[in-house]
Every structure is written in C-alpha cells, then in structure tokens.
C-alpha cells in the first residue's frame, strides 16, 4: 500500500521536473534558467531520498547530502559570475 | 495510522511542488517566479522528507534526513536572494 | 565556554555521519573537528560578548512557531494567486530600515522575510532591506510584523 504511494509520488515528481525543464529551455533571461535549475535540484533531493527508502539502501542518503551542498554552491557561483561580468562591462 | 499520516504528508508535499511548478510556468516576471519557487519548494521538501521520516521510523537514516531538511531551510531562501540580487542590479543599473 | 559548545556540535555531526560509535572513529572525528575549529575561529568568536541564556531559547521557540504559521499562510496565498484564472498581481519594490544591530540577526530577518507571505528580500546592505512585494497590501505585513520585535528582544538579552 505505502510502497505504491511512494512509487506514484516518484512519477509525479518526475513529471513536474520535466515541466520545469520546459521553463529552463524557453526562459528569456539567464535568471529564469538558474531559478528553474534550482527547483529541479530540490526535486532531485526528494527523489533520491524516496528511491533510497524504497530500495532499502541507506548509503544513498549520503549522496543526498553531497548533492544538496553541490547544488547550493553551484547556484551561488553562477550568480556571482553573472554579477561580476556585469560589473566589468560597466 | 502510519499509512494515514504518511499519505497526508505526501499529498501535501506533492500539491505544493506542483503549485510551485505551475507558478514557474505561468507568472510573467523573474521576481514573481522567484516568489512562487522559494516558498513552495521549501514547504514541499519539508512535508515530503518528514513523511519519509515517519515511514522509516527512528534510526540513523531519519537523523540524516533531518539534517537535509535543516540544510534546505537555510540554503533555499539564500540561493533565491543571491540570484535575484544579481539580476536586480544588472537590470536597474544601480548600486545599492 | 562557547568553544566547547561548538566542538560538541561538530562531534555530534560527525557521529550522525559515521552511524556507528567505535574508538577509532571518535578519535578521528575529534582531530578533524579541532582542525575545522582552528580554521574558522575568527568567524565564530567575533562580536560575542555575553553568553547564551535560557530566555533566548524561550524567545527562539516562539519565533519558530510564528514562522511556521506564517509559512503555511504564505504557501496557501501563493497557491490562491497561481491557481486563480486571472492573476491579480502588482509587483513593487520597497525600501525598509531595520533597527537590528548584529549581522546574524539581520540575516535571520532577511531569510524569514523571504518565507513570509507575499514578500521576499532582494538585497541587504547596511541597515536597508530592499523588499519585493507581490501586491500592495503585503507591504503593511512587514512594517508591523511580530518577527522583528522578537528579534529585538533576543538582541537585548544576549548577542547571538
């Protein structure tokens, strides 16, 4: 019963992530793309932890921790690069 | 009982995730899109991960999931703030 | 005193990461947390003159409860705006001066303004917060919000 609920929620999360990719492709400026990639990263964190609970493999949670750190640092670095490139062109 | 709690938490989390995605697709502007994603993602991740904590019971895995929740709650508003800050400066040509 | 609390937090994190308690793991964790403490010493021992007392914890719990309530209200507001067929939004940017002194409390206030209904922080420089509002009515929510008053009370009792 609960296993099927978890699998259904996996499918819904995957569909919403694909809808976010549409915004990342269409998005007029780079900021829209950055925001949608950030949303996809949050969804991937939840998705990996659900997969690890379903399979019973507990070491996937460490993957989740490292993925959260890396996605945060990536969004910081990209926004800082955009900020600096704008200042240099000034 | 456990089934009831876990399903309620998961339905809430999935509802807020889908609301955030619809907002990302429908709203007209970068800043309004950031509104919808910053709020809905934070609460959706909280509800889904706490549903997983209730499902797996009390052990080391649920402690690690609690750490992930705290980390998301600190970093998600900060990341949104930094992204919008960079683009606000580049659009308005102003040193705040 | 503050040093031992910080080392204790680092050791708890290490024990959660390694999952089992044996002698070698605890020795390795102790060495690693001392190295991390020596790297980040100047960030943590700056500007802390008084110790943390019980009243701070009391106000922090009240703060967390109010924040949870505000976040749930904020999410239903966003859902109402997004799911209605004709979206009624009039975005605007407001400048807002805080009375808070320490940097840590200012950061907490900026992060929780992002999570409260209809508003989020664009920039924080000196004393001025630049807040983006989704509708005009939400502006009054920030100006007399209970969150800043609680943070002011925390600042009176201890510098955290």
List the helices and strands and how they pair.
The complex is a heterotrimer of chains A (90), B (96) and C (160).
Chain A: H1 2-26, H2 30-55, H3 60-89
Chain B: H1 2-26, H2 30-56, H3 60-92
Chain C: H1 2-18, H2 23-39, H3 41-44, H4 54-83, E1 92-97, H5 103-115, E2 119-125, E3 128-133, H6 138-143, H7 146-157
Antiparallel strand pairs in C: 1-3, 2-3
Helix pairs in contact in C: 1-2, 4-7
Number of contiguous helices of chain B: 3
Overall geometry of chain A comes to elongated
Which H/E pattern describes the elements of chain A?
HHH
Give start-end ranges of low-pLDDT stretches of chain A: none
In short:
The complex is a heterotrimer of chains A (90), B (96) and C (160). Chain A is an all-alpha fold and 90 residues long. Chain A has helices at residues 2-26, 30-55, 60-89.
Give an account of the 3D structure:
The complex is a heterotrimer of chains A (90), B (96) and C (160). Chain A is mainly alpha-helical. Chain A is built from 3 helices and no strands. Chain A has one domain. Chain A is 90% helix and 0% strand. Chain A starts with a helix and ends with a helix. By secondary structure, chain B is an all-alpha fold. In chain B, 89% of the residues lie in helices and 0% in strands. In chain B, α1 packs antiparallel against α2 and α2 packs antiparallel against α3. The relative contact order of chain B is 0.13. The longest helix of chain B is centred in the last third of the chain and has 33 residues. Chain B is elongated, with a radius of gyration of 17 Å. Chain C has 2 domains: 43 residues, no CATH class; 104 residues, no CATH class. Chain C contains 7 helices and 3 strands; from the N terminus they run ααααβαββαα. The two termini of chain C are 14 Å apart. Classes of the chains: A mainly alpha (90), B mainly alpha (96), C mainly alpha (160). At the A-B interface, α1, α2 and α3 of A face α1, α2 and α3 of B.
């Amino acid at each position: 019963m609960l296993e099927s609920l978890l699998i259904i929620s996996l499918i819904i999360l995957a569909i919403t992530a694909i809808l976010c990719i549409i915004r990342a492709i269409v998005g007029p400026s780079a900021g829209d793309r950055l925001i949608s990639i950030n949303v996809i990263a949050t969804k991937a964190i939840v998705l990996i932890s659900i997969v690890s609970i379903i399979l019973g493999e507990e070491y996937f949670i460490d993957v989740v921790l490292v993925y959260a750190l890396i996605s945060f640092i990536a969004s910081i670095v990209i926004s800082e690069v955009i900020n600096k490139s704008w200042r240099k062109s000034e | 009982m456990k089934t009831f709690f876990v399903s309620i938490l998961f339905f809430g989390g999935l509802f807020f995730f889908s609301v955030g995605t619809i907002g990302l697709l429908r709203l007209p502007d970068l800043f309004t899109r950031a509104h919808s994603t910053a709020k809905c993602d934070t609460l959706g991740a909280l509800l889904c991960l706490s549903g997983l904590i209730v499902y797996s019971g009390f052990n080391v895995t649920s402690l690690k999931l609690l750490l992930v929740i705290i980390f998301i709650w600190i970093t998600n508003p900060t990341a949104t703030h930094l992204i919008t800050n960079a683009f606000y400066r580049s659009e308005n040509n102003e040193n705040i | 005193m503050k040093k031992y609390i910080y080392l204790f937090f680092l050791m708890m994190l290490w024990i959660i990461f390694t999952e089992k308690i044996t002698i070698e793991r605890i020795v390795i964790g102790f060495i690693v947390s001392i190295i991390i403490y020596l790297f980040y010493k100047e960030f943590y021992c700056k500007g802390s003159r008084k110790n943390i007392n019980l009243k701070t914890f009391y106000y922090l719990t009240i703060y967390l409860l109010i924040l949870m309530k505000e976040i749930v209200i904020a999410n239903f507001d966003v859902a109402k705006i997004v799911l209605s067929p004709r979206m009624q939004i009039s975005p605007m940017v407001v400048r807002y001066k805080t009375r808070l002194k320490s940097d840590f409390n200012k950061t907490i206030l900026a992060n929780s303004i992002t999570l409260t209904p209809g508003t989020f922080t664009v920039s924080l420089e000196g004393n001025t917060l630049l807040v983006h509002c989704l509708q005009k009515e939400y502006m009054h929510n920030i100006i007399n919000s209970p969150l800043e008053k609680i943070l002011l009370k925390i600042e009176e009792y201890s510098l955290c």
